[in-house]
Amino acid sequence: MHSSLALAVLAGAAFASACGDEKHFQRVRRAAASSAAASRTVAAGTSAAAAATAPSRTDEASNAQITNAAEECTPYSYPPVAALQAAGVFPEIWEIANLSTAQPDVIALFQSLNGSIPNIAPKGTAIGDVCSLRYVLADDGATDPDCWWTYEQCHTPKAKGLQSDVYNLATPETWGLTYDDGPNCSHNAFYDYLQEQKQKATMFYIGSNVLDWPLEAQRGLTDGHEICAHTWSHRYMTALTNEQVFAELYYSKKAIKDVLGVTVQCWRPPYGDVDDRVRYIAQSLGMQTIIWSDNTFDYNIATLSRATIEGNYNEILNGGKNGSYAVNGTIVLTHELNADTISLAEEFLPKIKEAFKYVAPVGVAMNNTEPYVESGYTYPNFAQWTAGTTSISLAAPIAVSTDASLSIPLSTGQTGSVSATVAYASAAATSSSGSGSGGSSGGSNGARGSAQGIVGAITAAVVGAIGAGAITVLL
User: Fold this and answer.
1) Residues of the chain with pLDDT under 50
2) Within a 10 A sphere around the Cβ of 114, how many other Cβ atoms?
3) Is the Cβ–Cβ distance between 93 and 34 less than 8 Å?
């Protein structure tokens, strides 16, 4: 992709690390094996006494009644997920995903895509070590040729055909409410609180968490939150190979599909780490990249202190009061990572509602009333939301014990130029007039059942002599 490349040392100060601290996820991965063993013990029913005292977890509704955090986080076996794992459908939880267990259809999908992925080298390591990285400059001397968000917070891709990241909102005085790293095993009290507040949010779920805590994931959909993906194992995505990036996105999307019954069309890169190579793969899988414009840094509470995080919240709140968001609303990075981030979320939600005119999920603020490929899940548009309607029509979560097939129309153009677009939001809702480069993004919202196919599946456009080919894969 780059010829006659000049080398430049990547300045550490330019980085903007975000999302759950990598050390936290290293601990999660170390605990995964023991958790899986505990789940197998529960499934085998080896202890009658333990079974008698264990909380009842027959479905989402019964699981939602558990409010003791220790009981909530007791590993359990959910038959549909157990069947899928026994069949080797998914990679090892919390390990970097690859296609070693993938069905032939999925491998064929990746192979059909791989040749056209932008030729951008992986950056750093999967745990975020970029100390020795030297980032290339383009022939014309321009910095950040790959639109690497981690480097300069670039959100307007430089590769042809890629949609800009969603990072703010065209609706003024609006706080785009998002929570990363779920589903948290102990989130029932938090979700109860959101229900009491009649507040919905955009939840970015990690695929491994969805398999670890499937009923908790189902509750997110049941309660009317917008569900998006947050990769399979929560790694720095630009450090991974093409196959690993594809698998991390594919299996996170698949986990949500198999456990909740919906095919999501949005994702957020862990730590915000995305470049045009990763965007290309995500867009080809029908996933819009969503970043943020404000960061509370709540994930770093252990090192920054609670007072510091509260100060970060208050800085954004002050902007809501002094007119800083009079032109564009903001998407704010917050987490359901642990008890500390959750308690901060509960503490500040009333203050957010006081400082901002509107508090809404990202999809709602962008008038995306049908955020999933499947029908039966209708959310309010922004006008309905501001009038007080927080829910329209949501089907119940549907888990499966075998792979659910999905047809993905896929079309790519010349190398480095994807021709597939994701119809995540309406153009009217995303025509940003703010000062940020590129503004908010989103494809045109087609009608369900139109000639372009199902809303949110990839809309295949003919590029040159290459036409649209529908590939059925198991999602």
Assistant:
1) 1-19, 33, 37, 39-52, 407, 409, 411-417, 427-475
2) 13
3) no
Contacting residues for 31 by C-beta, under 8 A, at least 6 apart: none
What would the DSSP string read from start to end of 278-313? HHHHHHHTT-EEB--SEE--GGGHHHH-HHHHHHHH
Burial of residue 427 (number of CB atoms within 10 Å: 0-12, 13-18, 19+) = middle
Which amino acid type is present at position 83? A
Instruction: Check if 144 is active-site.
Output: no
Q: Which two tokens stand for residue 209?
A: 């968490």
Q: Where are the domains of the chain?
A: 110-474
Q: What is the CA radius of gyration of the chain?
A: 21
The pLDDT tens digits for 239-272 are 999 999 999 999 999 999 999 999 999 999 999 9
Identify the active-site residue in 155, 187, 230, 335: 335
Quote the CA–CA distance of 256 and 12 in Å, as a whole number: 35
Query: pTM score, two decimals?
Result: 0.83
Contacts 24+ apart (CB under 8 A), 94-97: 94/25, 94/28, 94/29, 94/32, 94/208, 94/233, 95/29, 95/233, 96/126, 96/232, 96/233, 96/235, 96/240, 96/244, 96/248, 97/207, 97/232, 97/233, 97/244, 97/247, 97/248, 97/250, 97/251
24 is catalytic: no
| Active-site hit among 21, 165, 180, 298 | 180
As a whole number of angstroms, the distance between CA 251 and CA 232 comes to: 6
- For residue 42, give the nearest of 73, 93, 78 by alpha carbon: 78
Q: Contact 408/471 with Cβ under 8 angstroms?
A: yes
Taking CA atoms, 26 is separated from 21, 247, 405, 467, in Å, by 9, 20, 33, 43
Round to whole Å and give the CA distance between 395 and 222. Answer: 8
List, for residues 324-378, the tens digit of each pLDDT value. 999 999 999 999 999 999 999 999 999 999 999 999 999 999 999 999 999 899 9
Which residue bears the tokens 């970015």? 204
**Among the CATH numbers 3.40.50.620, 3.20.20.370, 3.40.50.970, 3.30.1360.70, which is that of 110-474?**
3.20.20.370
**AA letter at 464:** G
- 267, 230 Cβ separation under 8 angstroms: yes
